Amino acid sequence: MLALVLLVLLTGAADAADLQTSANVRLRSAAEEHTGDLQTAEATVGLEAGAAITANWSWSGKLRLRADSEDRLEPGRPTQHERSDFNRRWLLGDTADLELRELYADGHIGDAFLRIGKQQVVWGQADGLRVLDVVNPFSFREFVWPDAQDRRIPLWMLRAEAPLGPATLQLLYIPDPTYDEIPLGNAAFAVTTPLLVPRGSTPIPVREAARPSGLRNSSDLGARVSALIGGWDLTLNYLHHYYDDPVPFIELSSTGATLAPRYERSQLFGASFSNAFGSTTVRGELGYSTDRWFITRSVTDPDRVFSSDEFAFVIGVDNVALADTLISVQYFHSQLRDPAPAMTRSSNERQATLLVQRSFRNESLKLRMLALRSLDRDDGGIQARMSWQVSDAFSLSLSLERFYGDRDGLFGEFRDASRIGLEAQWSWARDH
């Protein structure tokens, strides 16, 4: 709440000649494909402002007010246990919230660039899949369908960038222990797959996830070196962090079993590359993560989870040879270094995506289709979207989002959440 007050004070104190403001209003609804029942009927108001503070410093901020009359994406009053005390939404009853999405200051000290405050840092650019894009946690209230920028949860952090010879060094200090928001219970996109949630013959009590305590213990650190070498955009990445999904440990006692999740440390060593060859771009990401945790059904493992390092990569090819058309294909692979008996996932997991996007009428009309497919299980998802920019300030879109396949799969478990949506958006921008 203090940050909201600060944003208002900054806006009021800014020089009117420097102040830039924008706003957008979005109304959208979605009905479930099989039943016709409304899954969401949501109104969102976004406000952005920014201004110069001095010759070398400026500030920017974003607010979002959101209300959903159906209350099926986050039923009841969210506990926000995944968020730090200073990164919580202001809940307006069970169906509405106000959130400070971003608030940061940009500045230069010599050749170094600094961004201090609540922000997003994007390391990966894969569509629908994540290898390096793990600096910010994600909200999964609508699984993977919203744009990544809307799904990321901004964090309070310090970001510094400085030239390092022909390269650029980026350093991150993140004292904000906020993690993925994963819907459970009777939410429309509640996670139930045995890949992520232990199952027993009978329901067992569940504790809230144990969080790290203390500023030093809960903070994350990151570094990235980026350079353009021989036409290739290259990065080397390192992140020492708490993995954003809690480990679902099972605790046994004389009274029975209890699900006692807690967050565990991991280190990510990664790299990315991209280069354009005429109308085709080749890009990829590689990541080696230490101390990842996965679920096993083995009765000899009392807590039903095991630790293993994980190597993952994604390689993508984008082509724009056809006029006003983008075709993008991705292949994702995850391999465990130390697989365990009776684990619920495979030692090698493979997924693929296909993105086709075409624009018409000077880009005022766009058609977009994204397909995600598990190559090891018979499940996947398809999102088809038609957008019409009616005017500079007003747009309409129609979407179909469908899941299919095995109900125990990562995508197939959401078959009943397949939906058809309609959205209208108004936007304004002003330089004062």
Provide key terms for this protein.
18-stranded antiparallel beta barrel; single chain; two-stranded antiparallel ribbon; Porin; mainly beta
Can you lay out the helices and strands and say which pair or pack?
Layout: H1 2-13, E1 20-32, E2 38-52, E3 57-68, E4 90-91, E5 96-109, E6 112-119, H2 148-151, E7 155-164, E8 167-174, H3 215-218, E9 220-229, E10 232-242, E11 250-253, E12 256-259, E13 265-277, E14 280-295, E15 305-319, E16 325-336, E17 348-360, E18 365-374, E19 379-389, E20 394-405, E21 419-431
Antiparallel strand pairs: 1-2, 1-21, 2-3, 3-5, 4-5, 5-6, 6-7, 7-8, 8-9, 9-10, 10-13, 11-12, 13-14, 14-15, 15-16, 16-17, 17-18, 18-19, 19-20, 20-21
What is the count of β-strands?
Answer: 21
In angstroms, what is the radius of gyration?
Answer: 22 Å
Helix content: under 10%
CATH topology tier name: Porin
Helix/sheet category: mainly beta
Mean pLDDT: 93
Broad CATH class: Mainly Beta
Integer count of domains: 1
Count of alpha/pi helices: 3
Largest sheet report:
18 strands, antiparallel, barrel
Quick structural overview:
This protein has 432 residues and is mostly beta strands. It has helices spanning 2-13, 148-151, 215-218; strands at residues 20-32, 38-52, 57-68, 90-91, 96-109, 112-119, 155-164, 167-174, 220-229, 232-242, 250-253, 256-259, 265-277, 280-295, 305-319, 325-336, 348-360, 365-374, 379-389, 394-405, 419-431.
